[in-house]
Amino acid sequence: MENFWSPCNQSFDLWSGFLQKAPKLQSQMVEASLNSIKSAMIFGNGVLKYTGEFMEPSWDALNAFCNTERRKLPSTPYLETMSGYADLFQLNVDLGSQAMISPLALNDYLLRQMNEAFAAFLNTLFDGEGEDLAQFTARKAQLLDLVVNAYPKAIQEVKSEYGFHFDQDGFDQDGYVKAAETDRFELYQVLPRDPQVKVRENGKPIIIIPPYVLGANILAFLPGENKSYAHCFANQGIPTYIRIMKDIETTEAVQLLTPEDDTLDTRLFCARVMARHGRPVTLNGFCQGGYMTTLAILSGELDGLVDAHITCVAPIDGSRSKALVEFMKHTPARFRDLGYSLKTLPSGLPVVDGKILSWVFKLKSIDKEAPLLTLYRDLMMFDKPGQVAKVNKTAAAINQWMLYDKTDLPLGITQASFESYTIPVDKDGTLPVRLFNRPLNLKYFKEKHIPWLICIAEKDDLVDEAASLAPLEWVDAEVTVFPKGHTAIATSWSMPTSECALDSCFSYKSHASSSHPDGQCRGPVRYQLDLDETPSPAK
Q1: What is the DSSP letter of 225?
Q2: How far apart are the C-alpha atoms of 248 and 388, rounded to whole Å?
Q3: CB proximity list for 467: less than 8 A, separation 6 or greater
Q4: Is residue 475 part of a domain?
Q5: Helix axis angle, 2-72 relative to 107-126, nearest 10°?
Q6: What CATH number is associated with residue 305?
């Protein structure tokens, strides 16, 4: 009889224990329900916020579209207009489809969340070790609050530490001295942040040319955290200068800026720097700035002033950027017109709207940049098992750049870049752009014995490797390959203690191998230091 009643006793004990835990279980379920409601409200707010940020440029784009169509419609045949609109509608359907499919990439993350939730439920039910359901839902609510509410606040607060901060009087405590000025640009010397490092006045100087699209601030990412591309040079005692474009909104000369103006102002700055330090300049262009420095050197206007060239993630032949070119091919021919990205300033002059241009790049990568995917990507960035979620300055500064560092572009400069993305470099090395009505040929570097270091990012989804390495068909340039994406050279690797520090030689396996004799990649700062010890070749 004892054996007969044993299972009954066990069941009774089980239910008895369950009933004893019922009040606690009920309390946990109520708390979990309240946390879930809170999470749902924050998540809904986050979806609206991320969607709003993504769609904000669409209003500018719609305005530019209507203005351009009002100009085109009277002179365009009706059937051609209707055909163009039909193709544009199909493009929008395709983009919408990609945006809807992109969340499928979140399957792994969502599956992990379901597993964690189920484990928390079992822990709650059977009093197991680890998070119970109340704790799990509380952590998720805290994570959502961090991403949706605390993260934007941290992005705003990091502004004082991110980028360049120049004093109107020409010198400020952050260590910048105005060295020269034109109607369009200002030239600042970047001083070492370490007071024990002194500028070598007779050292080989370098002038850094930032991109028009990305802006200059990305090159002084977080100087206080020892993450700054420009300061990497200055902190080695190198005479370091950076060219800063004046405010396009209020400066008419910038609104009218052409590649020729860009070249002549660069020539003036190079002459001033060379006169001060007694040595020719190394010209260093980052991204679009690298394309402009290439044009300037090929024009011949910098002869005798520049004897070395460095480009970082620069699209020398934009037509080889597969993703963007593919996107442009799918855009109906009628709408491949810069007019659809123009806005008119109070001066009455047209400029290219920087918000629209950045939006085009997001649309190109809609499968990665859709609002819901971006929200989940930020959640995944902070959702580290076993770690307390918190916002670090690097993540905040990256978003400060992405969200608030957009500037409008001069039409003349954008037209030159547009041509480089639509017309390939000729078989003999001639670029599609002319300066001062002169043809520009990449073989000029070889003729003038100007050494060239080409730095690329292995996982660059903005400028394809082929676009940056195009000159190798005509120029014996040295190549350095950095891991990660487009801005990593200015962010991750600008820290001197990083594994691919800019002032070091490092080994990195890639099919785009370095041409340096010892098989290693030289960072741009290391390259400049080595040039400082090498006499300039005879011209």
Answers
A1: G
A2: 43
A3: 315, 316, 317, 318, 319, 320, 321
A4: yes
A5: 150
A6: 3.40.50.1820
Encode pLDDT of 298-343 as tens digits. 999 999 999 999 999 999 998 888 777 676 767 777 777 778 788 8
Structural domain contains residue 324: no
Query: b/e per residue, 516-535, with b = 16+ CB within 10 A?
Result: beeeebbbbbbbbbebbeee
Domain count, the chain: 2
Which of 359, 404, 361, 355 lies closest to 163, judged by CA? 404
For residue 116, the enclosing domain spans: 25-160+367-403
- Residue 291, token pair as written in the block: 């394309």
Q: Are residues 208 and 145 in the same domain?
A: no
CA 356/CA 340 separation, integer angstroms:
9
DSSP class of 158: G
Residue 367 and residue 98: Cα distance in Å, rounded? 5
Tell me: do 398 and 426 sit in the same domain: no
Say which residues have a Cβ less than 8 Å from residue 95's Cβ, sequence separation at least 6.
363, 366
My answer on whether 118 and 143 are in the same domain is yes
Domain boundary among the residues 403, 422, 450 is at: 403
- Give the whole-angstrom CA distance, residue 279 versus residue 205: 7
Angstrom CA distances, 216 to 183, 221, 244, 285, stand at: 18, 9, 7, 11
For residue 313, the number of C-alpha atoms closer than 13 Å in the C-beta half-sphere is 23
The pLDDT confidence band at residue 386, using thresholds 50, 70 and 90, is low
CA atoms 252, 256, 259, 263: torsion sign? negative
Distance of CA 89 to the CA centre of its chain: 29
| 342 domain residue, yes or no | no
Return all residues near 81 (Cβ < 8 A) that are at least 6 apart.
73, 334
The tokens for 350 are 């047209």
Other CB atoms closer than 10 Å to residue 251's CB: what's the count? 16
Alpha helices in 235-370 (DSSP H): 252-255, 259-277, 288-298, 322-330, 354-364, 366-369
Instruction: Name residue 72's amino acid.
Output: K
Q: Are residue 377 and residue 423 in the same domain, yes or no?
A: no
pLDDT tens figures, 262-310: 999 999 999 999 999 999 999 999 999 999 999 999 999 999 999 999 9
The fraction of the chain above a pLDDT of 70, given in percent, is 86
Say whether both 394 and 522 belong to one domain: no
Residue ending a domain, choose from 388, 403, 418 = 403
Distance CA 97, CA 366 (A): 10
Do 427 and 312 share a structural domain?
yes
Question: Using CA atoms, how far apart are residues 121 and 134, in angstroms rounded to an integer?
Answer: 9
Q: Are 238 and 200 in contact (CB under 8 A)?
A: yes
Residues 6 or more apart whose Cβ sits within 8 Å of residue 3: none
Could you say which DSSP state residue 203 is in?
Answer: S
> Which has the closest alpha carbon to 42: 134, 149, 116, 152?
149
Tell whether 313 and 438 lie within a shared domain: yes
Whether residue 356 lies inside any domain: the answer is no
Same domain? For 142 and 56 the reply is: yes
